[in-house]
């Protein structure tokens, strides 16, 4: 039934399992294990568990299964595996599919922890990694080889909001037999079309827009049923990166309002970008949905909207950025994003602090750059707050 419904409706109803009590809100099965009627039943379940049979919470749980089925239905994926955090999803997906001797091509513009997984962890176990400018298709074409196992990128990079052409990179990768793994956090499940544009695996930090209210860590890996159950699940259940039942329940509640929140956040972000462009305290405003973004046409084809995050590059460097941040009254200073609250971050001294300066320079992470994850507050209140803070920068 849910295949014929709109994504907003699927985000409310897909995957629902009701107990004999007929509860309206999904039940939390807060249990680590399950009881069998007999020794024979236990043996049979360990040989092959049915679609509504469970063994241990690290392997699967009814509440977690509801979240997996719902997010898969929303994304248009065959299956999903819920993880303990967004980084558990990134490291789990890549580690599960790669082995010593494999080659990976990745965009260089990545969140710091993603870079650590690629540069430090995978290479430690014999995976070769080549980095490219994700916006330059000629670099992808030159780097992808016959022995390339996978390509990896953020569809919109953190924090400079560069946009990678999913369809074009997927075409290059598939021509050489490589899988396409996309971290789609900034695009959100609301504006995402990654799977239909050629991605094989899509990853979300559910901590961000899916929860969207700063309550819990979580992640999810989406792909074909074969990839999720034959490649990802064995790795994740044995290494312990599974999502907890309580977290899954929180994420189910988040999915119910995801579409409404993301659309409101996107409208606010677009309004702010328009109001701030050309401000005399700013070198530039970076927003994928704004007409002056260098990849605006690609954004319109790939997403249709610019998303919930914009970045401001303040004149005066770190000192001006700190004065601006300290003058903000409505938003909060933190390092999360995708929240109902507006959150501001200074990447050069926080999320990307450990990057060498030459890498910061190459990625455009300047001392004056502030990432602004726009919330659902009143747009006029947000604009007035940002403008008064800029006047003090």
Short description:
This protein is α/β, with parallel strands linked by helices and 393 residues long. It has helices spanning 7-13, 39-47, 62-75, 86-97, 112-124, 137-143, 166-175, 188-191, 207-211, 225-239, 245-276, 296-302, 317-327, 357-363, 379-391, and strands at residues 79-83, 103-107, 128-132, 148-154, 179-183, 201-205, 219-223, 282-286, 309-314, 332-333, 343-345, 369-373.
Major sheet details: 7 strands, mixed
| Oligomerization status of the protein chains | single chain
Low-confidence sequence ranges = none
Beta strand count: 12
What is the CATH architecture term of the largest domain?
A: 3-Layer(aba) Sandwich
Q: In angstroms, what is the radius of gyration?
A: 21 Å
Biggest β-sheet: strands ordered side by side in the sheet: 1-7-6-5-4-2-3
Tell me about this structure.
The chain has 393 residues and is an alpha/beta fold. The protein has 2 domains: 253 residues, Aspartate Aminotransferase, domain 2, CATH 3.40.640.10; 134 residues, Aspartate Aminotransferase, domain 1 (Alpha-Beta Complex), CATH 3.90.1150. Helices cover 42% and strands 15% of the residues. It is built from 15 helices and 12 strands. A 7-stranded mixed sheet has the order 1-7-6-5-4-2-3, with helices on both faces. It has a 5-stranded mixed sheet with strand order 8-9-12-11-10. The longest helix is centred in the middle third of the chain and has 32 residues. It starts with 6 loop residues before the first helix and ends with a helix.
């Amino acid at each position: 039934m849910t295949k014929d419904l709109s994504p907003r409706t699927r985000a409310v109803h897909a995957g629902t399992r009701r107990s004999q009590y007929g509860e309206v809100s999904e039940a939390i099965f807060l249990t680590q294990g399950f009881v069998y009627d007999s020794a024979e039943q236990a043996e049979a379940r360990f040989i092959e568990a049915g679609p509504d049979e469970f063994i241990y919470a690290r392997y699967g749980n009814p509440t977690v299964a509801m979240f997996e089925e719902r997010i898969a239905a929303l994304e248009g994926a065959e299956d999903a595996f819920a993880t303990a955090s967004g980084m558990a999803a990134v490291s789990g997906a890549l580690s599960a599919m790669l082995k010593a001797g494999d080659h990976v091509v990745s965009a260089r513009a990545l969140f710091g922890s993603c870079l650590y997984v690629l540069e430090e962890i995978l290479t430690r176990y014999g995976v070769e990694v080549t980095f490219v400018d994700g916006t330059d298709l000629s670099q992808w074409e030159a780097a992808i080889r016959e022995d390339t196992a996978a390509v990896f990128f953020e569809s919109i990079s953190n924090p400079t909001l560069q946009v990678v052409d999913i369809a074009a990179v997927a075409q290059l990768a598939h021509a050489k037999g490589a899988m396409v793994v996309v971290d789609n956090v900034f695009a959100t499940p609301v504006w995402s079309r990654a799977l239909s544009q050629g991605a094989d695996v899509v990853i979300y930090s559910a901590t961000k827009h899916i929860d969207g209210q700063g309550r819990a860590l979580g992640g999810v890996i989406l792909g074909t049923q074969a990839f999720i159950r034959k490649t990802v699940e064995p790795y994740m259940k044995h290494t312990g990166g599974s999502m907890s039942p309580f977290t899954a329940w929180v994420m189910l509640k988040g999915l119910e309002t995801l579409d409404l929140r993301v659309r409101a956040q996107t409208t606010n972000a677009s309004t702010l970008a328009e109001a701030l462009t050309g401000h005399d305290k700013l070198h530039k405003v970076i927003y994928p949905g704004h007409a002056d973004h260098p990849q605006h046409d690609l954004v319109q084809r790939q997403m249709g909207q610019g998303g919930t995050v914009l970045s401001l590059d303040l004149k005066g460097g770190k000192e001006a950025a700190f004065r601006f941040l300290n003058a903000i009254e409505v938003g909060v200073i933190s390092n999360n994003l995708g929240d109902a609250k507006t959150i501001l971050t200074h990447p050069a001294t926080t999320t990307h602090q450990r990057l060498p300066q030459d890498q910061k320079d190459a990625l455009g992470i300047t001392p004056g750059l502030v990432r602004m994850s726009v919330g659902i507050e009143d747009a006029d209140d947000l604009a007035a707050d940002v403008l008064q803070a800029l006047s003090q920068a």
